Amino acid sequence: MVAITAVASFAIPDFSFGFHLRLMRFIFIFLGYIAGFFGIGLGIFVYLCILTNLKSFGVPYMVPYAPVTNINSNGYFLEPVWRREKRADYLNTKKEKAQNHISMKWRYK
Amino acid sequence: MIKHLYKYFVIIILAIMFAYCFVGAHSAQSVDDLAYAVAIGFDVGDTERIKVTFQFTMPNSSGENNAGETAPSVIDSVEAACIESAVNLINTFVSKEVNLAHCKVIVFSEEMARQGISKEIYSLMNKVEVRPDSNIIISTTTAEEYIRSVKPSLENLVAKFYEILPRSSEYTGYTSNIHLIDFFNNLESMSQEPIAILR
Amino acid sequence: MTDKKIGNFEAIALILTVIVNHVVLNLPKNIIASTSSASIINVLFISIVAVLIGYLICKLLEKFPRLDILDIASFLGGKWLKIVTGVLFLGYFLFTVSVILRSFSEGLKIIFFPRSPVAAIMILFLLAVVITNKIGFQAIIRSNLFMMPIFLFSILFIFFANIGNFTIQRMLPLFGNGTFTTFFSGLSNLFAFGGFAYLYFLPPYLKEDKGLKKITFISTITSGICLLFSVATLLFLSPNSVITEEIFPLYLASRNIQFGRFFQRLDAVFLLFWIISLTAYLSISFAFATRVFQKLLNFEYTKWYASLFALLIFGFAMIPENMYQITFIEGTIYQYVVLILIFGLSLALLIFANIKYYLLEKKKGAVSIDKAPV
């Protein structure tokens, strides 16, 4: 369990993001002490609610996962790069299409 | 300003109150304070209804590397009317609290099996600690003798022996792997009969 | 205004929440208790009936775009009918939250906290619910959408991981207690689709008006699949008399999962996910209850009286004295409450409102419905 936590903490690329994790670790340890497993579950849910409420520069924080507008642009199942034709919806771009319909033309020649 | 501090004061008081309410959550699960019973045996008792035998192991003996020698285990029996009171009585003798969460084998003696074991099966299934995939073994001698005589020569730990032994049904036809849940389901069902292995 | 818009997938996850949480608690046990080995056929049958009823509701709601059931009630019968409907729905939401809260806390106490009082577990749940309600409605809906694939996957996983222990012969005799019990009195098993209560309140919050049909179909079909898998797991795993006496049937089914030596007791992971899903369900029902109250009395913010509602729910949840009473309430009384209120009363309300709309249209030519400000 500790090994999984240590390896997962490598997923955070920037160093300054790690401060947040350290603070949250204390809060979750405290919740785990109070009410065991149950407290950690509740803590995860409240933490998730706070996260989904955040907006950075007008874009919601959990955007490919939480408000899903188009079934093709969700966070769980991403398309391969050569199939992503539209730009992301949450950016409100002026030009919607990022690449042509068949971008790898050399495949079909 | 005082109003804001009041809110935090209330939160801290609540947190301390909850820490006392949930004592069962974090004190019962510290590994060093529990004695894990690896095997349980049921016999027909002399003075009471049944005689229950518990086999405890020490959890830190898995680091030893004695080739050919098994780690020491503690075997105790008490006489009681049902398994709950047996656990209660054993708790008075053993210093740590008895926990049945790692119980892998439940042994019944043949004499007891002829009398009927449905009461014990029901009590075992009703306890949340006991795993539904522990094995049932019926022994030709009394259960206490069986548990005392188990000295595996290819293993260090008795627990691992109990776990692997019934799995030989995967590659042999002469035995079968009966879990507690299978036995219980067959007992309750009106279209199947329960079976167990005899050693 | 942007605070209150819900997309399509969020609405689907909203309606799915209800059935996922009830499946975890005691729903398959109650279905199997009434129609013993015909449960699978019964579930298929009521899924089809529920899809038809959903289609009917969508058709009836077409004439009233962006109006929820309270506005329709005020169109039909004036202020008094609106108040009566509002009070009934408010009572339904509060009742559901307290019953589910108490039932799950009792089960959790038996498994994990044998020495703690039930009240402490319930207070912690309510604390989390009140905190998330003060954060906002949209936050709850989005976190629910975020975790919904995981909840659905957990139920499927229990089915597929237990395949080694199944005896499919428990499905026979195929019609169980008789065709009458399976199809006619088995219709009372429609209470599983209690998520339709949210459907009545959903139209003002949707981003696109035409999405209601899509939402109803997809959510009902997915609910049916989820229900089918959970009922099949229980039915094939244990004989009938065992299932009807268990506490948390799906949790006990998850204790049998074993993949070799390393993945042995996975039931704690499932319980963690189910705690999160239950908190989401409680928060959503609570949010709807406060919104109904807000609409009835024209309040502006819901966050001031959220704690009061939490205390009321706590009071209701402490009324049953032991586990048997709460199981009875959840099994029998909840069934009739859902059937009468959601499938009986509201459908009648919608039908009468449509009849009145047609009559008015014939008389006057065009009907204008003044909508109360959201």
Query: Within the largest sheet of chain A, what's the order of strands?
Result: 1-2
Uncertain runs of chain A: none
How many H/I helical runs of chain B?
A: 8
Largest sheet: number of strands, sense, barrel closure of chain B = 7 strands, mixed
Q: What is the helix fraction of residues of chain A, given as a range?
A: 25-40%
The rough form of chain A would be described as elongated
Query: What percent of residues of chain B are in strands?
Result: 15-25%
Order of helices and strands of chain B: HHEEEHEEHHEHHHE
- Count interface residues per chain for the largest interface: A-C, 26 and 31 residues
The residue-averaged pLDDT of chain A reads 77
- How many helices of chain A? The count is 2
Average pLDDT over all residues of chain B: 79
Judged by helices, strands and strand pairing, the structural class of chain A is mainly alpha
Largest sheet of chain A: 2 strands, antiparallel
Q: Mind explaining what this structure looks like?
A:
The complex is a heterotrimer of chains A (109), B (199) and C (374). Chain A has helices at residues 2-8, 18-53, and strands at residues 55-56, 59-60. With 109 residues, chain A is mainly α. Chain A folds into two domains: 1-53, no CATH class; 57-109, no CATH class. By secondary structure, chain B is an alpha/beta fold. Chain B has eight helices and seven strands, in the order ααβββαββααβαααβ. In chain B, strands 1, 2, 3, 4, 5, 6 and 7 form a seven-stranded mixed beta sheet that branches. Chain B starts with a helix and ends with a strand. With 374 residues, chain C is mainly α. Chain C has a single domain, classed as Amino acid/polyamine transporter I (Up-down Bundle). The A-C interface holds A 35-42, 44-46, 48-53, 60, 62, 65-69, 71, 76 and C 7, 9-10, 108, 112-113, 121, 124-125, 128, 131-132, 135-136, 138-140, 142-143, 145-147, 149, 268, 271-272, 275-276, 279-280, 283.
